[in-house]
C-alpha cells in the first residue's frame, strides 16, 4: 500500500502504472508532475491521476513513492530539484530502458551511498504512446526487472516489488551491468538493425522497386523501426558501451556469414543457419506467449 | 488451359499450384515426378496430383507445361535428363527464389537462345512445408514475379501468366538482375541478419540471461531465423553477388550508426531513425495487408 505516489512524466508507462494501481486500490493518492499543465489536466480528466502540480518540490512533499519517468536528458535537473525536499523515508524508482546511466545520475546528485533508489525497468509497451494510450492491464504477465545496488535498502526494494506486483507484473532482479548488456543484445541491437535495414534500403538505387516488393519478412523485421526515434536515440546515448559491444559482435558474425557466402561454403552456411533455427525454436517454446 | 502439367518436386509450392489449378479446372491432367515414390503416392492420395512417375523423360512426354520445383543443386542434372525428350512446344517454368542462377542452368543445357523457358518466382509460403502443407488458396492475392528474357517467346510467357492468374495470384514482370537485387535487399538480407542475430546472441557469455529476457522485438525480428536452413543455404549460394552487395551496404550503414553512437551524436541518430520510421510507416500504409 502506498500513501502518496508521485509520477514525474505521466505518459504510457507512468499512466498505465497509475491505472493498474487504481484498480488494485494500492495508493491513497496519485499525483502527477511535469511541465505541461494541459497534458496533466488531461491525465486527471482520464482518471489516471488524482491531481497534479508543476512544481517538483511540492510534488514530493509527504510522498512515500516517487516514480521518475522523464527522458534521460531531464533526469539530472529534476533530481536536483527534488533532493532538498524529498522525505527521508521516500523511495525513488524509475522505469527507464537503461539502468547504468540513471544510477550514475542519481549517484551524482544524491551521493554514492544513497540507499533509497530502486532502479527499475518494466518491459512493456505499445505502439502508441502518451497518457491517452495508458491502460490498466499493460503490465499483466509482463516482466519488470529491478536492479537494486549493493547498498540499496532491501525494504525499499521490497516495496517497489510489491507495487509492480500489484499491476500483475512478473518481477525479476539483475545486476545493473548485466541488465544493460542483456537489453543491449535482445532489444537495443535489434532496433538498431531494423533502423539500419530500412535506411540501407532507402539508399539503394532500386529503392522504388524495393519498397514495392518488400514482403512479409521485411514487415516483421522492420516493425520495430516504427518505434519512437526520440526514445531510441536516448537509449543509444545512455547505453553506449554495451550497444557498441553487441554491434561489434554482430558485425563480426555478419562478416563470417558473408565470408561463407563468398566462399560458397554451403555446409558451413547450413550448419550456422540450422543452429540458429534450433535455438530460436527452443526459445519460442520456452517463453510461449509471454515472450 | 493446360493439357498436361508436369511438376518436378511436389512440395508446398508445386503442390499448392496443382491444388489451385484443380479448383480452377485449368489442367486436364497433373503428373508429379521426383525420386521419392512414397512421397509421390501421398501426393496422389491427397488429391494433389493425378499420377506420378519416377522417370523424368516419361514425365515430360506430351507435356505442354513443365514446372521445375526442385532444389537448385538438382536442377542441372534434371535439365539434362529432360532435354532430349521435351516436346518442342512445351513450356518450362520454375518457382525458385533466385532467377539468375536458374537462367544460367537452363542456358547451359538448352543453349543461349532457348525461347521456351519462363523464369518465375511466386512470393508465397507457409511456415510448414511439404506436400502435406499444400493448400489451394496459397497464391490468392500473392505476387508472382516472372522474369522473361529478351529472347523468351511472348506466347510462352503469356501462358505461364495465365496459369498463375488462375490461382488468384497477382502477376508482375521484372528483369532477371533487378529481381535478384530487389529480393536480396527485401528478403535475403533480412534472413541473413536474423540468422546472424540469433547466432550472435548464442555466442555471448550472457547467453542464458539473454535467451530468458529476449522480448517481443526479438521474437518478431528472428521469426525468419526459423526458416528452412536448406532453402536459405541455396538462396545464399545462388544469389551470391547481389546478397554480398546488400550485406556490404548494410554493414556500411550499421557502421555509420555505430559511429554516431560512439560520437554521442543525438541529433544525427534521431534524424536517421525518424527518417527510417517515416519510410517504414509509409510502406505499411502503401502495401496494406498484402505486404
Give a verbal description of the structure.
The structure is a homodimer of 291-residue chains. Chain A has 291 residues and is of the alpha/beta class. The first copy, chain A, has 12 helices and 9 strands. The first copy, chain A, has helices at 12-23, 37-45, 56-60, 72-82, 100-110, 154-165, 176-202, 207-213, 216-222, 229-238, 240-262, 266-287, and strands spanning 2-8, 27-33, 51-53, 65-68, 91-94, 117-118, 120-122, 143-146, 170-173. In chain A, the strands form 2 sheets. A 6-stranded parallel sheet of chain A has the order 3-2-1-4-5-6, with helices on both faces. In chain A, strands 7-8-9 form a 3-stranded mixed sheet, covered by helices on one side. In chain A, helix 4 packs parallel to helix 5. The first copy, chain A, is elongated, with a radius of gyration of 21 Å. Chain A starts with a strand and ends with a helix. In chain A, 50% of the residues are buried. The mean pLDDT of chain A is 91. The interface between A and B is large, with 90 and 89 residues. Chains A, B: This is Prephenate dehydrogenase/arogenate dehydrogenase family protein.
